[in-house]
Design brief:
Length: about 600
């Protein structure tokens, strides 16, 4: 045995050659040669795994910090490794919230929350769930945008999987390196279109990490079954390419066949490793790839694009909620979009589908109530030959209009929706024009983060003399105008995707169907109460988000069963209660 051990340790003596004798300082001699090693000498990173509290305290899945009881400290060899006080989870939460509130900068709060997630997973989710309205803007938009921009500088520990061009041919092996085997939800980005901030390359990882934190906190999907992934094919961002702290590939983006082949290998490997029922959410891909990927894989995988479909579902729910204030049906209104990319065309299509469902008219007919403006002006039939394929269904017969203001005056919409990713584009003139021919103009400034919003809540209320119904993508504070307090809505995708994901998981769905998105919208709109409407709200309060997610999940699951796309049988009798029973709760568990 002695000689065998020596053979398997090339380049140095066997550990059995060392005497573990005491040193002058009272310690044990450096048996593994690590302290004596030169920089060019190979060292084996030996670790000893013992069922002791020391490793337990450093395991974020099981660590409870000062909440370990005295009995647990004895059973798991923690006595002496912690101060003597035993603190409840509630008191820990109170202390951490106080500490986070001391930080002045949102990025400092974000870093503190991410550090907590790395130390104590259950406490992180307890804090987030119990204070969701305060902390959602910290862990997600708008703060996550700044975090992605500075991800290389604040990067401490890897979160999720990084799959780059260097892993081509080895993606299945890389997936197997992830410690969890039972994965239910994957959020994947290639970082090319992060929020309204553009190409952030590998630093876009903050988005999948943030989205999956919300899948757990808001939708109750177990954190161990969530996997954030960034696919690094390079970046065209010159600032990042010249940044010495950039953590991704320092090369221009791969395109064409090279890009398509890497994505094909990735999608095949995910299905092979995790099965057919794993939900793959595409996040912040650029328009030219987002539509192609969704079209290509929606028939073979359980895929969902939050920028196209999630945004559409949450906006449709807001529109249905707004009808309680505006009156009429969707078909009675005229919609004008600024922005004809993923979000704009996705929302427009879902509105057209819902109108078609309500009126029994063909979707080609209901699309005529919806108009889009892109960077070249109003999309009209005379431009059809030069349009990208996803814009062509929206090219209607009409004289050209080169500016948004011209389009507003010509179309006279009742609803103005911004998905342009460009801030301050709903100018005073545009908003005042909307107010001229609408008693209650509905204005949705959806671009993220806050700096990219088409107009602020204060501007919308001020320029319409307090008559506007307003919602945005990122949060705005309440606005007082002429003695009345207006509470702006937030058309946040976080209303939809956690509940949608939970519904797909609990039903064992194998594909995402458009009718499931409509069901999710209806589930959200159904949670808007009469009291909410009286306050001018078109979305329910976010403090009830887990209840809202359970209802959305039940609606989605019911539609999956109805369409024959659910594999988890038999169907539960009460889907709302079943959804609630499946939701992860972050309360501490008692250890033997």
């Amino acid at each position: 045995m002695d000689s065998t051990t020596k053979k398997v340790r090339p380049g140095g003596a066997s550990v059995l050659d060392f005497d573990l004798k005491s040193t002058v300082g009272g310690g044990v001699e450096d048996a593994y040669g690590e302290d004596r090693a030169t920089e060019d000498q190979l060292v084996t990173p030996w670790t000893i795994t013992v069922a002791s509290g020391y490793s337990l305290l450093r395991d974020p899945h099981h660590n409870k910090g000062l909440a370990f009881t005295l009995k647990e400290r004895d059973a798991h060899y923690i006595r002496g490794l912690l101060p003597p006080v035993v603190m409840s989870q509630e008191l820990q939460e109170k202390k951490l919230l106080h500490n986070i509130r001391q930080y002045q900068l949102p990025l400092q709060k974000y870093t503190a929350m991410m550090d907590l997630a790395e130390r104590n997973e259950r406490l992180f989710y307890k804090l987030l769930i119990d204070n969701v309205e305060e902390l959602l803007p910290v862990v997600y938009t708008p703060t996550v945008g700044e975090a992605c921009q500075k991800y290389g500088s604040i990067f401490q520990r890897p979160q999720g999987l990084y799959i780059s061009l260097k892993e081509k041919g080895k993606i299945l092996e890389v997936l197997k390196n992830w410690p969890e085997r039972s994965i239910q939800v994957i959020v994947v980005t290639d970082g090319e279109r992060i929020l309204g901030l553009g190409d952030l390359g590998c630093q876009g990882m903050g988005i999948p990490v943030g989205k999956l934190a919300l899948y757990t906190a808001l939708g109750g999907v177990r954190p161990s079954s969530c996997l954030p992934i960034t696919i690094d094919v390079g970046t065209n961002n010159e600032k990042l390419l010249n940044d010495e702290f950039y953590i991704g590939l320092k090369q221009r983006r791969a395109t064409g066949k090279e890009y398509a082949d890497l994505l094909e290998e990735f999608m095949s490997a995910v299905k092979q490793n995790y099965g057919e029922k794993v939900l793959i959410q595409f996040e912040d891909f650029a328009n030219h790839n987002a539509f192609d990927l969704l079209a290509k894989y929606s028939t073979t995988h359980l895929v969902f694009n939050d920028d196209i479909q999630g945004t559409a579902a949450v906006v449709l729910a807001g529109l249905v909620g707004a009808l309680k204030l505006l009156g009429g049906t969707l078909g009675d209104h005229k919609f004008l979009f600024l922005g004809a990319g993923e979000a704009g065309t996705g929302i427009a299509e879902l509105i057209a589908l819902e109108m078609s469902k309500q009126t029994k008219a063909p979707v080609e007919e209901t699309r005529k109530n919806i108009w889009l403006v892109d960077s070249k002006g109003l999309i009209v039939s005379s431009r059809k030959d030069s349009l990208q394929h996803f814009k062509k269904p929206w090219a209607h017969e009409h004289p050209p209009a080169t500016t948004l203001l011209d389009a507003v005056k010509a179309i006279k919409p009742t609803v103005l929706i911004g998905t342009s990713g460009v801030g301050s584009t709903f100018t005073k003139e545009v908003v005042e024009a909307m107010a001229e021919f609408n008693e209650k103009p509905l204005i949705l400034a959806l671009s993220n983060p806050t700096s990219q919003s088409e107009c602020t809540a204060e501007e919308a209320y001020k320029w319409t003399q307090g008559r506007a119904i307003y919602a945005s993508g990122s949060p705005f504070d309440p606005v007082e105008y002429n003695g009345k307090v207006h509470v702006p809505g937030q058309a946040n995708n976080a209303y939809i995707f956690p509940g949608l994901g939970l519904g797909l998981v609990i039903s064992g769905a194998i594909r995402v169907h458009d009718d499931m998105l409509l069901a999710a919208s209806e589930g959200l709109a159904g949670q808007v109460t009469k009291e909410n409407c009286e306050k001018g709200l078109i979305y329910p309060p976010f403090c009830n988000i887990r209840k809202i997610s359970a209802h959305i999940a039940a609606n989605v699951a019911a539609k999956a069963y109805e369409l024959g796309l659910a594999s988890r049988l038999p169907r539960p009798e009460n889907l709302v209660k079943y959804a609630e029973s499946c939701m992860y709760t972050p309360n501490y568990r008692t250890y033997r």
